[in-house]
């Protein structure tokens, strides 16, 4: 499944149930993050005939695919809290040991999370089957902080980890790379994927140095790339050229999944980094070039962070533009 990519076909997915997940008022992760990307779907529909658009995707992750990444106890906990009324669910959120207090489980959260993870699995299926070369999944709640049996950092089910493990289940010799360029370390993804054989999966996580989600030593199949606070894209490019791209080329994956967080933008309230929208285009091009050299260009990208709505629009537009190029 390796080789170059002469012709690109990209599909944009969103999930119908994302708006049903309600975060706590005034918190950064909110439904408007998805709403503000609607314009992008319309713009690409008008300007780029090579882009497929799948709106309101109702694809749900199977119970089995979720349990590859999360414990049954944790999944049942999410489902139970989501079925409670507003007051009981809020109290459970505060006192339940499986959920960080500000990572809210609202009455619509469980099905929104299962829909988000299912949308990623559908994108993986489509890319592996050759129905599209690249995919971008505009979904919420985000996933990369959700661990085996704990939700935190606004994340409930780990969309990318579920997608990666689903891909590995499709073929015994499948090799997958996951790249997380969110401002925060993808601790949940790292924990879940640490159980994979190093010959089948390799995880890269770049993040602002001092991130609270960095815990313990990096597992055998994980490469951590801390970025000093105040860095601009020139420093990040160098870190990727030295620590990520060579190892990715050596690993020769069949598929690359991306946890695409856009909270390194200087206007984002949660960062001390300086990565502009155009820089996100360049960062994505680096990954696209690597995909072209190793896996026929196959990339599935999944929305994670990014909390300034204007910056999120601009960064996602540049990211998808780069994904759509050969």
Summarize the structure.
The chain is 40% helix and 15% strand. With 326 residues, it is an alpha/beta fold. An eight-stranded parallel β-sheet has the order 2-1-3-8-7-4-5-6, sandwiched between helices.
Walk me through what this model shows:
- This protein is globular.
- It has an 8-stranded parallel sheet, with helices on both faces.
- The relative contact order is 0.16.
- The longest helix is centred in the middle third of the chain and has 21 residues, at about 110-130.
- It has 12 helices and 8 strands.
- By secondary structure, it is α/β, with parallel strands linked by helices.
- Helix 11 links the parallel strand 7 and strand 8.
- The protein has one domain (about 10-325): Arginase, Chain A (3-Layer(aba) Sandwich), CATH 3.40.800.20.
Set down the secondary structure blueprint.
Blueprint: E1 10-15, H1 32-35, H2 38-47, E2 51-57, H3 63-67, H4 72-82, H5 86-95, H6 109-129, E3 134-138, H7 159-170, E4 176-180, H8 187-193, E5 201-208, E6 222-227, H9 233-243, H10 245-251, E7 255-260, H11 277-294, E8 299-303, H12 309-323
Parallel strand pairs: 1-2, 1-3, 3-8, 4-5, 4-7, 5-6, 7-8
Helix pairs in contact: 6-7, 7-8, 11-12
């Amino acid at each position: 499944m390796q080789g170059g990519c002469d012709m690109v076909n990209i599909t944009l997915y969103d999930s119908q149930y994302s708006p049903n997940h309600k975060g706590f008022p005034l918190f950064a992760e909110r439904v408007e993050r998805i709403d503000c990307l609607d314009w992008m779907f319309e713009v690409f529909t008008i300007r780029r005939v090579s882009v497929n658009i799948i709106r309101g995707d109702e694809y749900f992750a199977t119970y089995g695919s979720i349990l590859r990444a999360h414990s049954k106890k944790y999944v049942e906990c999410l489902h139970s809290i989501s079925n409670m009324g507003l007051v009981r669910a809020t109290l459970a959120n505060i006192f339940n040991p499986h959920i960080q207090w500000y990572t809210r489980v609202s009455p619509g959260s469980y099905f929104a999370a299962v829909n988000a993870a299912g949308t990623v699995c559908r994108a993986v299926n489509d890319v592996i089957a050759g129905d599209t070369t690249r995919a971008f999944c505009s979904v919420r709640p985000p996933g990369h902080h959700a661990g085996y049996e704990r939700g935190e950092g606004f994340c409930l089910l780990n969309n990318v980890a579920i997608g990666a493990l689903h891909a590995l289940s499709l073929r015994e010799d499948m090799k997958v790379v996951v790249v997380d360029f969110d401002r925060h370390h993808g601790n949940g993804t790292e924990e879940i994927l640490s159980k994979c054989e190093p010959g089948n999966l390799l995880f890269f996580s770049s993040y602002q140095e001092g991130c609270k989600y960095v815990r313990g030593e990096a597992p055998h199949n994980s490469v951590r790339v801390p970025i000093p606070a105040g860095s601009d894209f020139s420093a990040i490019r160098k870190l990727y050229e030295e620590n990520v791209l060579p190892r990715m080329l050596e690993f020769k994956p069949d598929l690359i999944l991306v946890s695409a967080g856009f909270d390194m933008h200087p206007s984002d309230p949660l960062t001390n980094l300086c990565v502009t929208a155009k820089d996100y285009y360049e960062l994505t091009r680096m990954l696209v070039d690597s995909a072209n050299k190793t896996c026929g260009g196959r990339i599935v990208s999944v929305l994670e962070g990014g909390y300034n709505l204007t910056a999120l629009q601009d960064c996602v537009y540049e990211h998808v533009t780069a994904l759509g190029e050969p």
